[in-house]
Amino acid sequence: MKGKLSSRQRISHDIDAINEIESYTSDQVFTEFLVNSMMQFACIKQLEIVGEACNHVDEETTNAFPQVE
Q1: Model pTM?
Q2: Which of 2-6, 20-24, 50-54, 64-68: highest mean pLDDT?
Q3: Is 49 within 8 Å of 17 (Cβ atoms)?
Q4: Long-range contacts of 28-37 (CB under 8 A, 24+ apart)
Q5: Is 65 among the domain residues?
């Protein structure tokens, strides 16, 4: 995710990653999740994408939407 992506593209990546996590976990119960290391790893990787994209949203966007941290 390096390079000059716009904040809109980065936020789109966030939404895609969140949707992936929801698709992985929508039919799971928490106890199944806890014993499924592959599921945990997949969710963690998507959360890393969210974090990386959020860390690079430009200041103009964060100033325009202060309720988003």
Answers
A1: 0.81
A2: 20-24
A3: yes
A4: none
A5: no
Q: Report the number of secondary-structure helices (H) and strands (E) in the chain.
A: 4, 0
Among 33, 68, 66, which Cα is nearest to 11's? 68
- CA 35 – CA 24 distance, rounded (Å): 14
Residue at 32 is within a domain: yes
Q: Give burial (CB, 10 Å; 0-12/13-18/19+) of 68.
A: exposed
- Cα Rg for the chain, rounded, in angstroms? 14
- Name the domain count of the chain: 1
Q: Can you give the residue range of the structural domain that contains 53?
A: 7-59
How far apart, in whole angstroms, are the C-alpha atoms of residue 32 and residue 38? Answer: 11
- Say whether pLDDT at 4 is over 90: no
